[in-house]
Amino acid sequence: MSKILLVEDDLDLAKSVAIWFEDEDHIVEHVSDGKEAINRICTASYDAIILDWELPGTSGLEVCRNIRDQGINVPIIMVTGHGEIDSRITGLDVGVDDYLTKPFSLKELAARIRALIRRSAGSASPVLKAGNIELDPRSHLVTKSGAPIQLMPREFAVLEFLLRHKNQIFSTEALLQRLWHTDSDSSPEAVRACVKRLRKKIDDEGLEDSKSMIETIPKLGYRLNG
Known about the structure:
By secondary structure, the protein is an alpha/beta fold. Helices cover 41% and strands 21% of the residues. The protein has 2 domains: 3-120, Rossmann fold (3-Layer(aba) Sandwich); 128-224, Arc Repressor Mutant, subunit A (Orthogonal Bundle). The chain contains 8 helices and 12 strands. It has a 5-stranded parallel beta sheet, sandwiched between helices. Helix 2 runs parallel beside helix 3 (60-69).
């Protein structure tokens, strides 16, 4: 599961895109103008941004230029009616990662988003692995030593995120920001409870938390060792 910001002023299109990605168990947050998009991107964390070129007030091009100037490197796919080569070059020069010309297939958009997120995480293979655990985001399947294990959606999201960022430390607050809706009233305790449940499912029976695949780093957070 990924957290995606959708910046689109066509409400019917935005609804269709949001439903598609939410059906794939992603978190989708929607804004309809460029200024609000910049505010969201600067105050929350996202795995990818779907950005319309033509927005009221501040264009998608200006949104991209603004956040790149601030050093924010989240993957961006621009959806646009501009199919001309010069327009694409302009977008690429300000930091757009990929383009999709309207009208587009939602299935293709989803595939391009998955590819952008994989590249951003430095993973060429869609299947994520650590120890005897394998997670396939496409089929939503997790196996332990080859046997399927059942995870709740939020457990799956936490495991997928940590597998994409192996050996990196994330605080409970960082995980809350990345994997829960920005407007959620959940607390860091919800993160800790989720990690506790997840450990019981992916670790060997009877294993102490201190030896878990998801290691607790005192006063810092969690790290999945790969």
